[in-house]
């Protein structure tokens, strides 16, 4: 697996000789193009995952269909997104025809590039074994046409079983608009569906014919087979909601939700406590509940949750601004909670932390923007901090350096690997020094937008002793974007041998552009971001795979690449430092 670095074709070619036993390949293709197809695609592959394929053309799809006939699982990301690269419907047809054993297909790019009038017919040749399909972007009209039973006389007709994608159990789509027509077609056309994940991001406020209404919700899960349902309206382009859905829509849908295990609802601004409470009381098997932008969701939804048979392990209530400490007190009755996401619930304070402190199995705790204090964090010490894997305190503006002492002073072995201390105006280098002394082997540390963080913090983390003699060896991600005290001095401590496993670094490019560029050249497998973008593949985002990071030890291929230092680049970085010293 070479998914965390992006090797060039020159480096990768000798690592992938003909090998009839290679069945699994995961790769970041940001440094590759069509010239790599010959040594990448092996006939023996069963699982293939190629990310960041922007410099490839549609030929990648057709060649996979021609060369990899035994594939069971395929992931393709960002194919042909670079200007000048083309992708044609015939490429998709060769892929679907050639890979006749596919069971899972993920196309994380805009498939609306394909001609619509041929799109549905091409999918008629897809593997009948295909049970899972995910698409990065597709129009709702195309989805409706794809799954419509009236595709023409050339397709076989069998009313008992759809001719398109007959075995699909999991469908995940990003679309322009979630509509009644699309939802109804999916519900009627995919008879075996158990997992439905739909997200849209409207460019303009949708009209009624291009929107989801109560009638559309009533069509979902007509056969009662769904176990996971996610309906999310993203606000990526403008602030918009499902304005045509209210409590009645959820009441109608709840009638067929008895088998639901996971529900995610985002952007239902007209749904009140009545609708959300109906879902909780109807879905007796529910273990995962996610609600975002629940503008009318209050504490009353969870008031009597202890009287239900629910065993919730995953709860996310992001941007539900009416929630207070009382809701958390009620949720804490679920002692098996493992993930609790309360980001941007700004009325939560130390009383909520006291309740959270009684959850011994908690692994993920996200408290961004809450009103907690240093003293309140002490409630996590007795039984929670030792079990946590990820903790986010981003934007909790009342916290100071004392929060580090409150969390980690006197703690022994911790499982905590991801910590977000971003946007804390009172966190300084002194707090990071305390963090370094704790010797916790973090994988990810985010401290962006902290004005008092400076060079001393970088030096402390670089000199941090983990596993006895290894300096800062555990950090894979370090985000220092827009930290007020970072100067060119810090860049000397970002070179090897410090931070040997660092793969993501966030800095402010305006500190010294030459040094940023030189650092990127000297560490070719380090992703250096200097424009404020969030680091990592999906940092605390919305995908289900968010908390299932694979941090296995570096394999032999990756180790070989990491040890291949480029002396000339180090010389360039030294020159940049010297030039900077002369300027200063």
Automatic annotation (TrEMBL):
Gene3D superfamilies: Ribonuclease Inhibitor (3.80.10.10). Pfam families: DUF7885. Coiled coil: none annotated. GO terms for biological process: SCF-dependent proteasomal ubiquitin-dependent protein catabolic process. Residues 2-536 form the F-box/LRR-repeat protein 15-like leucin rich repeat domain. GO terms for cellular component: SCF ubiquitin ligase complex. InterPro entries: FBXL15_LRR, Leu-rich_rpt_Cys-con_subtyp, LRR_dom_sf. PANTHER family: F-BOX_LRR-REPEAT PROTEIN 10, PARTNER OF PAIRED, ISOFORM B-RELATED. This is F-box/LRR-repeat protein 10 isoform B.
């Amino acid at each position: 697996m070479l998914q965390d670095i992006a090797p060039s074709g020159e480096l990768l070619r000798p690592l992938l000789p003909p090998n009839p036993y290679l069945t699994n390949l995961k790769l970041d293709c940001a440094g590759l193009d069509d010239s790599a197809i010959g040594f990448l695609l092996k006939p023996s592959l069963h699982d293939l995952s190629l990310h960041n394929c922007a410099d490839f053309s549609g030929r990648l799809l057709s060649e996979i269909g021609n060369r990899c006939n035994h594939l069971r699982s395929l992931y393709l990301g960002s194919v042909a997104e670079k200007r000048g690269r083309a992708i044609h419907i015939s490429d998709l047809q060769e892929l679907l025809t050639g890979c006749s054993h596919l069971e899972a297909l993920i196309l994380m790019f805009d498939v609306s590039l394909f001609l619509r009038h041929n799109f549905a017919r091409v999918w008629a040749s897809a593997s009948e074994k295909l049970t899972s399909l995910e698409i990065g972007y597709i129009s709702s009209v195309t989805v409706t046409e794809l799954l419509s039973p009236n595709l023409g006389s050339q397709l076989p007709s069998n009313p008992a079983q759809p001719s398109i994608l007959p075995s699909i159990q999991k469908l995940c789509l990003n679309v322009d608009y979630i509509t009644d027509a699309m939802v109804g077609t999916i519900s009627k056309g995919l008879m075996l569906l158990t997992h439905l994940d739909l997200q849209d991001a409207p460019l303009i406020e949708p009209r009624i014919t291009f929107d989801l209404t109560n009638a559309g919700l009533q069509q979902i899960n007509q056969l009662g087979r769904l176990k996971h349902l996610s309906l999310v309206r993203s606000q990526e382009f403008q602030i918009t909601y499902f304005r045509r859905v209210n409590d009645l829509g959820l009441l109608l849908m709840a009638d067929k939700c008895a088998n639901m295990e996971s529900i995610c609802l985002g952007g239902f601004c007209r749904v009140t406590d009545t609708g959300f409470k109906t879902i909780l009381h109807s879905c007796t098997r529910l273990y995962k509940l996610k609600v975002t932008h629940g503008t009318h969701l209050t504490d009353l939804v969870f008031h009597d949750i202890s009287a239900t048979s629910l065993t919730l392990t995953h709860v996310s209530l992001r941007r539900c601004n009416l929630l207070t400490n009382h809701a958390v007190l009620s949720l804490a009755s679920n002692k098996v909670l493992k993930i609790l996401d309360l980001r941007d619930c700004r009325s939560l304070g130390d009383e909520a932390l006291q309740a959270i402190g009684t959850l011994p199995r908690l692994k993920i705790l996200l408290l961004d923007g809450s009103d907690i204090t240093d003293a309140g964090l002490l409630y996590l010490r007795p039984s929670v901090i030792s079990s946590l894997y990820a903790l986010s305190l981003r934007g909790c503006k009342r916290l100071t350096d004392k929060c580090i002492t409150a969390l980690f002073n006197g703690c022994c072995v911790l499982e905590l690997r991801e910590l977000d201390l971003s946007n804390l105006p009172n966190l300084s280098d002194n707090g990071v020094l305390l963090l370094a002394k704790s010797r916790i082997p973090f994988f990810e540390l985010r401290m962006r937008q902290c004005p008092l963080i400076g060079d001393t913090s970088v030096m402390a983390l670089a000199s941090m002793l983990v596993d006895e003699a290894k300096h800062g060896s555990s950090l894979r991600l370090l985000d220092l974007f827009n930290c007020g005290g970072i100067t060119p001095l810090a860049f000397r401590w970002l070179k090897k041998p410090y931070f040997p496993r660092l793969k993501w670094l966030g800095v402010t490019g305006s500190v010294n552009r030459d040094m940023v560029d030189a650092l990127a050249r000297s560490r070719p497998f380090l992703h250096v971001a200097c424009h404020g973008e969030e680091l990592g593949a999906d940092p605390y985002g919305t995908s289900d795979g968010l908390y299932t990071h694979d941090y296995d030890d570096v394999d032999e291929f990756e180790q070989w690449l990491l040890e291949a230092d480029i002396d000339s680049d180090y010389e360039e970085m030294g020159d940049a430092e010297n030039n900077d010293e002369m300027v200063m």
